[in-house]
Amino acid sequence: MTDWQPILNELHAALLRWASLWGLPRLTQQATLEFSPRMTTTLGRCNCRTGRIKINPLLLLPENRELLFETVCHELAHLAATAHYGRSIQPHGTEWKGLMQRAGYPGHATVRAHRIHGLPARKTRTARYEVHCPACQMTWRKHRRDLRWRCRRCLEAGREGRLVFQSLAPA
User: Fold this and answer.
1) How far apart are alpha carbons 157 and 139 in whole angstroms?
2) pLDDT digits (tens, 9 = 90+) for 13-71
3) 89 Cβ partners below 8 Å, 6+ apart?
């Protein structure tokens, strides 16, 4: 069994440092950090209303250490941006990016999957339908069918925008 306490202590110290840097020393008291085994495709998620930050436990692997700190800073910056500027800002807008840069991280909204050790390969969905707009001749491939969909181009031109779905043969 691995002892996570040293890394958690270091993480807590980083949280305090970032909160102080952003001028919100009480931010860490409003935030709840948890590692959720249910997170499999996302590294972190922040709920600004509750202050709950969920982190993918794969980031606790020693080879993901730097990514753990960047992800926690990323999510905490969402709380800080909301505290400073309110809820009407863009999630990864200039306010959030400024906080990330002050903490020493690039203001990227996502992380390249190759940087994450232990993350399973992402499943790609195969298109099962070809969607065609008879009015403007546009064609798309989709993995699901929704009869409510309309062609945006045609709707903007004042037309009905009905689409025709055709099943694709399995490969």
Assistant:
1) 17
2) 999 999 999 999 999 999 999 999 998 878 999 999 999 999 999 999 888 999 999 99
3) 81, 82, 95, 96
pLDDT at 171: 55
CATH domain 5-115 topology:
Zincin-like (3.30.2010)
10 in catalytic set: no
Domain ranges for the chain? 5-115, 129-167
Catalytic residue among 75, 95, 130, 160: 75
Distance CA 3, CA 7 (A): 9
Convert the pLDDT of each residue in 131-157 to its tens digit: 999 999 999 898 888 889 999 899 999
Q: Which burial class, exposed, middle or buried, applies to 137 when counting CB atoms under 10 A from its CB (0-12, 13-18, 19+)?
A: exposed
> pTM of the prediction?
0.69
> Is the confidence at residue 1, as pLDDT, over 50?
no
